[in-house]
Amino acid sequence: MRDALVGAAFQLFLERGYEQTTVDDIVTLAGVGRRSFFRYFPSKEDVVFPDHERCLADMTAFLAASGDEHEPVRRVCDAARLVLRMYAENPTFSVQRYRLTKSVPGLRAYELSVVWRYERQLAEYLRERFAGRRDGTLQADVIAAAAVAAHNNALRSWLRSDGQGDASAEVDHALGYVQSAFGTGPAPRPDGDEPEGAEPARDEPARDEPAEDVVVVVSRRGAPLWRVVQEIETALGPGT
């Protein structure tokens, strides 16, 4: 019944337009009554995003199952990948929804509220993990926002390509920035390989290359990343 209502709704949205389609139109095409519609969807907007409640519940359960052995930033990035999996399950539907949402301002606002709920869930998990840290709440909120922004940037790129290409690779690449910036270890690489063009680490300068100066910067624990970068730039001097 739920799938039939979603299918009827999107058929009408594509044929008539979102604003011109009513709930009565949807239930008539689906062959059910209005009561059946509202049993599954509180509003017409909800039928456009039928799978987000399930995905949010999956994310909540995933984070609740976390233990002390899980590095918090990586765990948040893995939770964000659950949203990608939802979109990748049905690329055709996801692309249709993306196009529809772009054309209807009310749906864009609704989608922003959905995204905010994901971000809030990630932030709440990080706040618990960072409890007692200096600026722990601030760190949690910034990292959650960064993870959502990175995920959505890659997701939109995939949707704009009509669902072509490897969405997982794009999202992994984007979330790698979050892991590198905020995590306590190197960003995970799904294939385990070095990035293309990367050279193996060396303990000493290569032969015939001059040794480089070493600059040590001391910063207080918990200092924001921008402050650390500023201190490094100051230590290195102009032209760096």
Describe the 3D structure:
The protein is mainly α and 240 residues long. The chain has two domains: 1-46, Homeodomain-like (Arc Repressor Mutant, subunit A), CATH 1.10.10.60; 49-188 and 213-240, Tetracycline Repressor, domain 2 (Orthogonal Bundle). The chain has helices spanning 2-16, 23-30, 34-40, 44-48, 52-64, 72-88, 91-103, 105-129, 136-160, 167-182, 225-236. Helix 6 (72-88) runs parallel beside helix 9 (136-160), helix 6 packs antiparallel against helix 10 (167-182) and helix 8 (105-129) runs antiparallel to helix 9 (136-160). The longest helix has 25 residues, at 105-129. The protein is elongated, with a radius of gyration of 23 Å. It starts with a helix and ends with a helix. Residues 189-212 have low confidence and may be disordered.
Which features would summarize this protein structure in a list?
mainly alpha; 65% helix; Arc Repressor Mutant, subunit A; 240 residues; 11 helices; Tetracycline Repressor, domain 2
Report the order of strands and helices. Answer: HHHHHHHHHHH
The DSSP helix count reads 11
Strand content: under 5%
CATH homologous superfamily title of the largest domain: Tetracycline Repressor, domain 2
Rg calculated over all Cα atoms: 23 Å
Distance between the termini: 63 Å
**Coarse shape:** elongated
Largest sheet: none
CATH architectural arrangement of the largest domain: Orthogonal Bundle
- Mean pLDDT over all positions: 83
